[in-house]
Amino acid sequence: MPQLIINGIIMGSIIVLGSIGLTLTYGILNFANFAHGDIMAAGAYLCLFFLGLNVPFVVAVILSMCITAGLGILIDWCIYRKLREKTSVVLLIASIGAALFLRNVVQLIFGPQLVYYSSEIQMAKKLPFGIRIKPDEIFIIAASFLLIIAVHLFLKRSRIGKAMRALSDNMQLAGVIGIETEKIIFWTWGLGCALAAAGGIFLGLEVQLRPMMGWDVLLPIFAAVILGGIGSPYGAMAGGMIIGISQEVSTAFINPAYKSVVSFMILILVLLIKPSGIFGKKERLA
Amino acid sequence: MESILKIENIAAGYGRVEIVKGISLHVSKDEIVSIIGPNGTGKSTFLKAIFGLVKVFTGNIFFDNEDITGLKPHQIVKRSMCYVPQDNNIFPSLTIKENLDMGAFVRHDDYSKNIEEVYGIFPLLSGFKNKKAGELSGGQQKMLAIGMSLMLKPKLLLLDEPSAGLAPNMVDEMMKKIELINREEKAAILMVEQNAKRALKISNRGYVLSMGKNMYEGTGEELLNNKDIGKLYLGE
Ligand SMILES: Nc1ncnc2c1ncn2[C@@H]1O[C@H](COP(=O)(O)OP(=O)(O)OP(=O)(O)O)[C@@H](O)[C@H]1O
Ligand SMILES: [Mg+2]
């Protein structure tokens, strides 16, 4: 069991990194960005590209995060921005289009096969309680923890960070008090997609890279966002950990092939019992 | 006294629907001016039109001797006019302090003194600086909303029904605060009010609107003593 909880924390960290950006853009722009998973995949493959150039891993991660941030901003600028006046269904469909586009570009460049960042076999370290953990996994947990702390400080302390939370609460009021909302939206895409890239890379490190990897992780990410309350970054952090841990722990009782059913069930339960989520104030669905 | 706001015969509305159909009004630098009138007559739409939230079809709006017709809210805020909407006027998941920070968003100087001033006007708020605004009572939220707008040292405050939904004793309290803000913060005030009598009592002047147009104009006292208005709008 302790092993499953550790595995859950690893998956939870990845889900949290993916869900912070999704919940912020969902809260602010009021639409479910189905391309968010494929943004994660794009980040993961960018990292693969940089590793191919013999760039050190940490540098490759940072470069990929920056470029993915730019990619997110670009997608918003070219596609979503023009559709803001339309209903959220139009945006939702546009995001599915963006998702398909990204996935096909990735597949075109890198091919459909499974890839690993490294072909080395890592020895798992033995810890008390029979826990075995690979150095990569320690890196994933530590790096995610640092990123989450950084996001927390940014959202709580910085002027732009506070404005992001304000926009997610009440976009109209933000405009009324003089916040240039488009600027804040721009930063929000950047932040959200940079974190998504980190999540995608860590997913690639833990499992492997596939063009479909982002799409497959979208369900637990949406479950985390809705469980935490749409628009609440702190809710996404809690929700992501809960989903990650329950998925892994469930494998003690059910066939691991069905573990994604767990996020689906949590998602349905939240929608039935408390649609606004743990920290949510709004009840919204795409 | 020189006027801070001068509106000449504006028409405004949503899409192509005209709701405000020719309203003229002025506010002097030291005045409290109230707008009263029946429900659905376009009072809120009129305030939104001044603040650039609703399209102005014809007419002109002058603020501090400058034509601001058609400017966007973030441009108007920078000229020191603030607007407090009737509801949804705070950020519920931010703390009181963070809400006030957001009120000062367009400022780049040190505004800590200003925050203390706001706590001075609304001592209730200083008790829970780190509480989430969504957990405050309705009355406290209204105080916070006005407090946010004071962070920019406005020359003119537009208030949409500041006393709506408040308990009767809180209504008096709110009117006292508005007088205080007018006197101490030197902010001119243009407010829309359902509690017409109480609003007119603290107002220098008032306007009665009906169907998107001016009906009457006078000092607070004149309007309070006018029999027709009493019958129609003051519930006598
Ligand atoms: N966003 C909107 N789009 C279209 N029509 C609107 C909108 N908001 C208000 N209206 C219409 O404009 C008219 C005037 O509304 P407004 O809110 O300005 O009146 P009001 O005088 O403030 O009323 P109240 O006393 O109820 O606050 C109403 O008929 C209303 O239906
Ligand atoms: Mg109104």
Jot down its keywords:
heterodimer, A: 286 residues, mainly alpha, two-stranded antiparallel sheet, B: 236 residues, six-stranded mixed beta sheet, 10 helices, 36% helix, globular, binds adenosine-5'-triphosphate, binds magnesium ion
Oligomer: heterodimer
Mean pLDDT of chain B: 92
DSSP strand tally of chain B: 10
Q: Structural class, from helix and strand content of chain B?
A: alpha/beta
* Helix/strand/pairing category of chain A: mainly alpha
The biggest sheet of chain A amounts to: 2 strands, antiparallel
User: What gross morphology of chain A would you assign?
Assistant: globular
Beta fraction of the residues of chain A? under 5%
Number of helices, where a helix is a run of at least 4 consecutive DSSP H or I residues of chain A: 11
Question: Largest chain interface and its two residue counts?
Answer: A-B, 20 and 26 residues
Tell me about this structure.
The complex is a heterodimer of chains A (286) and B (236). Chain A is mostly helical and 286 residues long. Chain A has one domain. Helices cover 73% and strands 2% of the residues of chain A. Chain A has eleven helices and two strands. Chain A has helices at 2-29, 36-52, 57-83, 88-110, 135-157, 159-169, 171-176, 181-206, 213-228, 233-250, 259-273, and strands at residues 125-127, 131-133. A two-stranded antiparallel ribbon of chain A has the order 1-2. In chain A, strand 1 and strand 2 (131-133) form a beta hairpin. Chain B has ten helices and ten strands. Chain B has helices spanning 43-50, 73-78, 96-103, 112-121, 123-126, 138-150, 168-184, 196-202, 220-225, 227-233; strands at residues 3-14, 17-28, 32-36, 55-63, 66-67, 81-84, 156-160, 188-192, 205-210, 213-219. In chain B, helix 3 (96-103) runs parallel beside helix 6 (138-150). The model of chain B has no long low-confidence stretch (mean pLDDT 92). At the A-B interface, helix 6 and helix 7 of A face helix 2 and helix 3 of B.
